[in-house]
Amino acid sequence: MGVVTPRTLYHILWAANTYAASRDPSSEINQYMIANQLLTANVRTDSGQPDAWRDYQQILPELGLIFSTAIEDQIRPTPLGLSFLDGAISFSELMAYQALRYQYPNGHQVAIQRPQRQLLSGTQYESTPTLSEIQQLSGVRIRPAVLVWHVLRALEGAGERVSLSVSELENYLVRCYRHEDTNACIEAVLRSRRNGIALPSYGSHARRNAQDWIKFLILTGLFGGAAGAGANVGIALVSEEDRAAIDDICARLVSPASFWNTTNVHQIDRRGWYGYFGTLDLSVPFIPAPQVSDEASSEYVGGREHIEPSEESETVGGITAMQLQPFQPISIGSPSSSSQTIESIYSAELSISAHRLHDTMVNLIASRCSARGATVFQDPSTVDLLVQFREIEFLIEVKSVTPRNFISRLRYAIGQVLHYDYLRSIGSTVQRRRVIGVAAQVRPDSWCIEFVNGHLHFDLLSLHDRALAVSSQEPAANELFG
Question: CA angle, 266 as apex, 263 and 271 as ends, to 5°?
């Protein structure tokens, strides 16, 4: 976490996404990182070649921005990674969102080190293959950042110093393996501060982990403090209203239903983890948005998300009919052939079009429909997709959304689909279904499912882990998209 800044994170991810399909992505990414002085070249002694990508790529899956290259042959960004590239979420929003959601067990931290394996000898877990499986089998279920927040808020309520040192994180919070341990942890910290009754240290490994977590938490905008010598973490938010908002988010995130759980504790679904952690969950709201200008800033390295072309170009009377054409997969981006400098990439790629997540979702839906034998059309001026299946037409409008803009974009999509349905009704008596797709996770108990399915009688497409999910009362829709 010590090398993570808005600039380095954005451009490592940009390079990974851009050169993923090239013949030698590692070499291309290394050249890009060196040309733009993002990180040290890290020349390897065995080959004499720079390999910064090999050393720093771990940052991206750790934060849920790409699927781990240990389980995917090709570099593949997650929906959250594409949202960050598109400027839909800011750097501190990303850090806060992922810090609060990060949990144990997960599908990323799976390796069992030799000292851990020695400790497991003679126990029921000695032959369990991964750390994630041990954690799940033994009842581990905790989000470290949520735990830190709860302890800090309790210290504040007790009139104590509202910060935690590395030693306190190491000796008390690291011992917690469920959120039910929070009160005991708070009591132990208070006993230590007031009476000098301290628990023994966990050792250097736990201390390094605590130091890295402090670096991570400080990047969120929720937590303040200092890294390095005398490292500590406190609360950065000033207003009680903002603190109460984080209290509400943390209350949701301790619910067992909010946790990622593998379906088979004896075989961890690692891809499922990256699908879960790398997708925006609309049931978890963003933190209070940082105050940043609309111009590109340290929070939005590539600029803020562009207004959709239709939002700024549609005029009264401007569209009177659909102009359908066979669907062609949307190109998500390709390497610049002329230069690898950041400045040229801004002009060649980012300033023209930054709707990667939207386009990826459209491609996903079109691919699913084609695989089911449907005929797929597009119209660049109106609907994203028109699909003919089982003598029914499905009008599909896709939105990339965040917890902050979901309501407004849902309303806009409803209006668009109704308008397109009217245009299609002129001269056509074919039965039609209205479909809204959102490139985010919608939980089964979300209010919007009943609103879209029951009240509007529309179909709703969303993301679940790494796959397409459908909510519909129409059998043909479930057959087509499910």
Answer: 55
Domain match, 468 and 344 both: yes
CB-based burial label for 317 (10 Å; 0-12, 13-18, 19+)? exposed
For residue 174, give the CATH number of its domain: 1.10.10
Shared domain check, 315 and 248: no
92 found inside a domain: no
Say how far apart CA 474 and CA 390 lie, in whole Å.
Answer: 12
Burial category of 156 from C-beta neighbours within 10 Å (exposed 0-12, middle 13-18, buried 19 and up): middle
* Domain total in the chain: 2
Return phi, psi of residue 152, to 5°: -65, -40
* Helix residue spans in 172-328 (DSSP H): 182-195, 204-218, 240-253, 270-277, 309-313
94-137 tens-digit pLDDT = 999 999 999 999 999 999 999 889 999 999 999 999 999 999 99
Of the candidates 191, 11, 219, which has an alpha carbon nearest to the alpha carbon of residue 100? 219
End-to-end CA distance of the chain: 39
What is the per-residue pLDDT for 239? Answer: 87
User: Do 327 and 226 have their domain in common?
Assistant: no
Identity of residue 313: S
Examine the domain organization and report whether 359 and 231 are in the same domain: no
Q: Which two tokens stand for residue 120?
A: 């497991």
Sheet holding 392-399, edge to edge: 325-326, 375-378, 385-389, 392-399, 431-438, 459-464, 467-471
The sign of the CA dihedral 71, 72, 76, 79 is negative
Q: How does pLDDT run across 77-88, given as a tens digit for each residue?
A: 999 999 999 999
Q: Is 155 inside a domain boundary?
A: yes
State the residue range of the domain holding 374.
Answer: 309-481
The ranges of the chain with pLDDT < 70 are: 41-48, 50, 203-204, 287-297, 306-319, 331-354
